[in-house]
Write a structure and sequence with these properties.
By secondary structure, this protein is mainly α. Helices cover 66% and strands 0% of the residues.
Length: 285
């Protein structure tokens, strides 16, 4: 059987095909070794049956050429893959740097607001951390969490457009002053909406003063028409405000704040979110 010329030719075809494919499935060094082994095997077999110099010499040269080209192709392919891997790595690094720059900018904005609105020092950091805890409890995905984090950091960014005499007034606001103060949610929207990567974060700055019963502002949204992250943040914003000293009042005891939030469930706050929030707060040390 091995002395049959047709068998030798058939064997050549069977072994030659994998040589051409090897450069696409194995590393260059291994690909060349495989191609060389196939070529040597075929050459020895041809010599043994007497066809090496009479009939198969050209085929043997072709196999050696194919083995060499396989190595060249595989080597080029690996270089291309390595270059692509390096490019992807660099792009990821650049993207991470840009994202970090974005986040640092947002944190800088929130600190700038707190410098101006001195009575809320530390408020933004506290409400952001608690909002993220609640959002994770309520199974927001990672992309949503990033937007929620940004929205919480910038929830009061619109107050940059509120006059100092209203923002820093130590006593109750007049009706006209209150209307001016309430424009800070619209100012936040106008400020942030032109920035593409902040558009998914607008729900908290725009809607955290809406109320479950529809009596909030700026759009008097009701029930589940209010975005969920804004409903979560509304509770946390009030909880933190009542739990810390302000120029016009002292901080409330924790239990009194909890009682107030429970009393506002179904009016100011989403009852289901209140239930989850109270459980989480009561589990704190």
């Amino acid at each position: 059987m091995l002395s049959d010329m047709k068998f030798i030719e058939y064997t050549m075809v069977i072994f030659a095909l994998p040589i051409g494919m090897s450069s696409f499935i194995i590393r260059p060094s291994s690909s060349f070794l495989f191609a060389a082994m196939v070529t040597i095997f075929y050459t020895i077999a041809s010599i043994n049956v007497g066809y090496a110099w009479e009939y198969n010499f050209t085929a043997i040269l072709a196999l050696f050429a194919l083995a060499f080209m396989t190595w060249v192709t595989a080597h080029q392919l690996e270089n291309t893959i390595q270059q692509n891997d390096d490019l992807v790595h660099n792009l990821k690094h650049i993207n991470q740097s840009i994202q970090q720059a974005y986040e640092s900018t947002l944190e800088g904005w929130s600190r700038a607001l707190e410098v101006r609105d001195r009575e809320t020092e530390g408020h933004t950091q506290r409400v952001t951390e608690l909002t993220m805890r609640m959002a994770r409890l309520m199974n927001f995905n990672e992309e949503q969490l990033r937007h929620i984090h940004r929205g919480a950091l910038l929830h009061d960014i619109g107050k940059l457009g509120i006059p100092d005499d209203i923002l820093h007034k130590p006593g109750p606001l007049t009706e006209q002053e209150l209307r001016v103060m309430q424009t800070h949610t619209q100012i936040a929207y106008d400020l942030l909406s032109p920035i593409d990567y902040l558009q998914p974060a607008l729900n908290i700055p725009s809607y955290h003063h809406e109320k479950w019963d529809g009596t909030g502002y700026p759009h008097k949204l009701k029930d589940e028409a209010i975005p969920l992250e804004a409903r979560i943040f509304a509770i946390i914003d009030v909880y933190d405000a009542l739990s810390h000293d302000r120029p016009y009042r002292k901080a409330w005891p924790k239990q009194k704040v909890i009682e107030y939030i429970l009393a506002e469930s179904g009016k100011h706050f989403d009852p289901k979110v209140v239930e989850i929030f109270i459980k989480e707060i009561q589990n704190e040390n």
